[in-house]
């Protein structure tokens, strides 16, 4: 089941490979008379991390031959005004996918915004209709981060059938959908899944039984060496900024896994940065291309 030496699950190389295929598929789709995929993004306020994430998504659209729209609004925009903008995008036939970059200001309800997006344009995969379809195994836009991790496992030809997967983190965006996808009758998938969180009793014991650990708890270096068995596969979703006086910025990025001390016990592990985060954009772009195909009405 395991290989002897640790291998990095390289998000940069994997994403480059997948994006090249998306670019090829997009060109073929357009050549057959299909519409150019078009992603519309909304950002509220001036959060530097949100600006970086959205900027990366817009640049990727250009790289893949997609159209894109970026709308920025001040932090004091009312919820109703933001919902009106989403409704206009829903009615715009040029737009195939809509994403609203989270987090939003406290006076705006995430649920209200997500629910306002047309499920046919919900390329983030957060709408209740998308979630319901995913739970039932119907065709759906999958949440981008879990989708990206599944694409990575597939790219590396990791056969997860029969494995025990422990997901640490139960968010609706990552942990819960990842647990569902890993339990499906598919490859990757066909795993036995335990869904845990920071309050799980005997969490260490659960993790020590895991062939695969998905760390999505949002706490720096939460998964430590003594929680990981030899040969485990680690998918680290965490993106945490911690103090580092050796860096010019005074900060550095780390994951939810204590990478330096865990890596030598693993068969495969994702680095941070350079791992799962890059795959998230691949999942988003796959969804956007699929939406464009749905809206093109061609064979």
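^ Assign residues to that structure.
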């Amino acid at each position: 089941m395991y290989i002897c030496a640790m291998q990095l699950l390289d998000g940069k190389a994997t994403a480059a490979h997948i994006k090249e295929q998306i670019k090829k598929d997009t060109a073929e789709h357009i050549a057959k008379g299909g519409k150019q995929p078009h992603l519309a993004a909304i950002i509220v306020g001036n959060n530097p991390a949100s600006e970086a994430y959205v900027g990366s998504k817009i640049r990727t659209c250009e790289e893949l031959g997609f159209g894109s729209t970026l709308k920025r609004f001040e932090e004091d925009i009312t919820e109703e005004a933001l919902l009106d903008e989403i409704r206009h995008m829903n009615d715009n036939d040029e737009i195939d996918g809509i994403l609203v970059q989270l987090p939003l200001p406290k006076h705006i309800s995430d649920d209200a915004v997500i629910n306002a997006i047309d499920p046919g344009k919900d390329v983030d995969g957060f709408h209740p209709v998308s979630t319901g379809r995913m739970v039932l195994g119907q065709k759906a836009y999958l949440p981008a981060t879990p989708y990206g991790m599944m694409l990575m496992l597939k790219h590396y030809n990791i056969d997860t059938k029969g494995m025990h997967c422990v997901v640490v983190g139960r968010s609706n965006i990552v942990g819960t959908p990842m647990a569902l996808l890993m339990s499906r009758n598919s490859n990757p998938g066909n795993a036995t899944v335990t869904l845990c969180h920071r309050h799980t009793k005997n969490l260490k014991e659960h993790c020590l039984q895991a062939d695969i650990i998905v760390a999505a708890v949002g706490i720096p270096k939460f998964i430590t060496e003594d929680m990981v068995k030899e040969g485990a596969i680690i998918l680290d979703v965490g993106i945490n900024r911690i103090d580092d006086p050796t860096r010019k910025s005074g900060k550095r990025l780390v994951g939810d896994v204590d990478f330096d001390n865990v890596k030598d016990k693993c068969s495969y592990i994702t680095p941070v940065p350079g791992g799962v985060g890059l795959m998230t954009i691949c999942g988003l772009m796959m969804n956007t291309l699929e939406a464009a195909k749905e809206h093109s009405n061609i064979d």
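The mean pLDDT is 95.
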